[in-house]
Amino acid sequence: MDDARLADIRNNCTECGLCADSCHILTESGESPAAMAARGATLHEALSCSFCGACEAVCPQGVAPLELFAAKRREAVENGEFAVEEFRYLYPDRERNLMSMYRAQCGIDYQDLEASGEATSCFFPGCSLMTYSPGLTREVFGRLKESGVCQAIWTACCGKVLDQLGLRQRLQNMQEHLRSFVREHGIKRLVVACPGCYHDLGEILRGSGVAIQTVYEVLDFGPGERAGGRRCTVHDACPDRTAGLFGGQVRTLLEQSGFAITEMSHTRANTICCGSGGQLSHFRPDLVDELVERRRDEFQQTGADVLVGYCLSCVLKYDSMLPGVPVTHALNLLLEREPDYRGVKERARRMFEGPDGEKLWEEVMAD
After folding, report:
1. Considering the entire predicted model, what is its pTM?
2. What is the pLDDT of residues 316-355, one digit of tens each?
3. Among residues 28, 53, 54, which one has the least CA distance to residue 41?
4. For labelling alongside 331, which of 8, 62, 258, 296 has CA 20 to 30 A away?
């Protein structure tokens, strides 16, 4: 771990305990970040972190304990302590990974949307949206293109999964590929649908002169009453907890569409992770269950008619694990489009069942 960051945790943590209230790792350990920094995080603790950022958000000193766990993952990979290759089916820089295989099996591609000429402004939907909601992806891009905002769709990945797995060199290589693509194609603007991609691309392309905007600030949703008397509550995505950009824009648009918004106990900067962060589902599914059930309780307490997310990973997590709770992506509500992602997690799981599924899995895991 960077010595300066480690020293920051050791020297600035006042052991006030506020972060323990928002972090299951610190609750389980019963130790302060300062104490953990002094002894070093264990691999179990590192794999229990969702990198949600709640610890830093509540810290009066701005200390980021999650840095301890991210550093431990990187260290464990580099030292061979963590068999990260067992999870290569998640690597977005491999031709064969779960999402690319799902798209192939379902016939999902966007080659017909490729720009025929110069395209300085592109729509960047992000992996989850372009994989699990192709209908919504095409709808959004069609509107962006028709309005002259974007000329092309860029179906790349920001590389977040590599960062979460501690694969520092692969992440750096992928980020450089993104920067090279931008330079080679003369891209000047990206319109982004995913909050994680938005904030990551902001760092990756810092100083490049590329303007990065959200779909909510450039898309014309048009006038109209869409609420139909429904009340909603918004689940805020962890990458947006500090800036609150997506959360603010989505709430404004929902209110303009006639929705009454009622907030859950943990919202905006104080939001809780859906369980997708840090690939937690693969390492601590028990914690995912706790997080999801906590959200169910908070949703029910609001009396809202629908739970709205603006990160499709969050929406899919709740869609698959909260039966009976109406969950939707904000874009589906605002564009009055029926979701095409219902049950995709189960469909993805079934891909690998039976003899054909076993062969497909062998393809995914092949070196």
Report:
1. 0.95
2. 999 999 999 999 999 999 999 999 999 999 999 999 999 9
3. 28
4. 296
